[in-house]
Amino acid sequence: MDVHTKISALKGIGEKTEKIFQKAGIYTVGDLIQYFPRGYDVYEEPVAISELEEGRTMTVTGAIYGRVQVGGNPKMQITTLYLKDITGTLKVVWFRMPFLRSTLSKGGVITLRGRIIRKKDGLVMEHPEIFYPSSRYAEKQDSLQPIYPLTTGMTNSAVIKAVHQVLDTADAGDGVLPEELEERYRLISYPQAIRGIHFPEKKEEFYRARERLVFEEFLVFILSIRMMKGNEDRMLNQYCFREQPELDSFLQHLPFDLTNAQKRTWRDIRHDMTGVHVMSRLVQGDVGSGKTIVALIAMIFAGLNGYQAAMMAPTEVLARQHYENIRTMLETYHVPLTAEILTGSMSAGQKRAAYGRIASGEVQIVVGTHALIQEKAVYKNLALVVTDEQHRFGVRQRENLAEKGQHPHILVMSATPIPRTLAIILYGDLDISVMDELPKNRLPIKNCVVDTGYRNTAYQFMKKQIQEGRQCYVICPMIEESESLEAENVTGYTESLREVMGEGIEVCCLHGKMKQSQKDEIMDAFSKNEIQILVSTTVIEVGIDVPNSTVMLIENAERFGLAQLHQLRGRVGRGKYQSYCIFMSASKSKETKERLDILSHSNDGFFIAGEDLRLRGPGDLFGIRQSGLLDFRLGDVFQDSKILQCAGEAAGKLLEDDPGLAKDVHQPLKHALDRMISEVMLEKTL
Ligand code: ADP
Ligand code: MG
Hints:
Layout: H1 15-23, H2 29-33, E1 39-42, E2 57-73, E3 76-85, E4 88-95, H3 100-104, E5 109-119, E6 122-131, H4 135-140, E7 144-147, H5 156-169, H6 179-184, H7 190-198, H8 203-229, H9 245-253, H10 260-273, E8 280-285, H11 291-304, E9 308-312, H12 316-332, E10 339-342, H13 348-360, E11 365-368, E12 382-387, H14 395-402, E13 409-414, H15 420-426, E14 431-435, E15 446-451, H16 455-467, E16 471-475, H17 483-501, E17 507-510, H18 516-527, E18 533-536, E19 549-554, H19 562-569, E20 580-585, H20 590-601, H21 605-616, H22 641-657, H23 667-683
Parallel strand pairs: 4-6, 8-13, 8-14, 9-11, 9-12, 10-11, 12-13, 15-20, 16-18, 16-19, 17-18, 19-20
Antiparallel strand pairs: 1-7, 2-3, 2-5, 3-4, 5-6
Helix pairs in contact: 7-8, 8-22, 8-23, 10-11, 12-18, 19-21
The structure holds adenosine-5'-diphosphate and magnesium ion.
């Protein structure tokens, strides 16, 4: 018997059971070996009757007390027994098992394991497993019993039996890890791991088994990503950068001190730009950590050195904001450079003029949206490309813009807090700077999750904040079906809010359907505090920066993912004032409340993304479409980040040593990779 043998060859698996197993994807012995438990039942030490707790599955040992009775009706016969120990008496019931009476009537000491529930007359153990004589429990105690995922008709005990049979008689194979890796990372062998994952005798055995299998899973994943990306050598840096006194002066005159994280990141960037190879760097920092200024410093550095720098933003609103921000800074601090904006909504004439200035080198700093990457933009000497909020762009777009220059330096800014180890793997070609520090003047945002009954109180609170000179955002109910409905919705909401707020408070709305010029006008007015409340759809999700805003009210918060809510919330708490985020939910469900509560207890994007990932799956968090690519059978990129890191390291060494994995010892691994890669290619995800 080997992994290819059909399961019908197993004892006890007839045609009917085979069909049922096939529905769960189990066709062969190999499939069965890979059918891992979803959890384990632990047979814990028996407790005294007085220590039983409602709602738990527990074990007790005691003497059978009095007569065993069978009652109920013919359809539902109930066997009742009383069990006694020195601490008390427990009622125990079984359903539809009248035959138990004759066995149990012998009396004596017995061990029972079952769920404890509360009934009118006290705690009752329902339908327990019987260990009689009670010494039989000792054999099972502390062991872990696998609980398998089941489909209709399948029983846990049937799977257990089949797997037992297979492990006792068939050859499970050797897995794909070269022996050398097993040794280096002190991993147990594949057959041991397979036995340990199905039938661990102790918890420790389960951990070791899982560790081995997760390592293997991660390794195959990482190697296939590396193989798909190809191992291009990094380009040489052909740009010549010198220190620029004007940049130092700019830094000295900034109205704030850079955080240590910002300084460190800028040092990394400068080091790259003046190094031997071109830069490929990812700057990862939570919302509000101050990524823009770091990018701007790098762009000015390029400009002062006689080159051009381009920054690509995911939305026009954000591009416009960056542009205004940069222009003001250049002017205020007398930096002798000129900035240009380039967005899709500009008229043909405007674009042509901008293209001209870009081609001639009249402008050194270009900010824009996707239009930037369109063919017509020809740069004179592009040396640096920055993409802001990377998760909004596909990998392709990043490459497109990079091709505009002669292999310019690449800087990618991302607020997506993925684990560093995972980032290294996903963006295998990028170095990483982490900005894990918020500017000093920030107060943590105060959060609350409320129901719609709180809306008026929230409005009054906003009014008060506005009287103190602050501004507010309201994120309006999202309507997914249609953009025009969404627009209508925001407009309607704005009108009624305007009435509530009364004279003297300017309420305006912003949504995706508006003309760009209109959006720009509104954003501009909002940033000058000519508008106090901005009612908006999620268009303001990324990047918008108006530090005077202190309240964000999110309607229908239950419809958003946690990571997205965290991004939205990042629009407040960006200045020196105390800020507030009100998550308003129309849902009464307990789960929704719990999910939103994660946000109100944490302002840490990294933690939240982890929770979001756990609750919703990776989704589009990484710009990789829901691909199943991060859907591991056993591994969890957060929980197992140590293993992920080891597997990453191992993958690097392997490829260094044997780039095509052509050696004999690497054949099983190579096959696993080929399988994985062809699956991914099929899904056309990368
Ligand atoms: P993000 O990292 O989310 O892109 P931004 O770069 O937009 O954040 O910065 C958020 C706000 O913090 C901006 O108003 C910016 O001027 C301000 N800021 C940036 N760095 C500092 C600092 N070191 N000290 C104080 N404020 C800062
Ligand atoms: Mg930003």
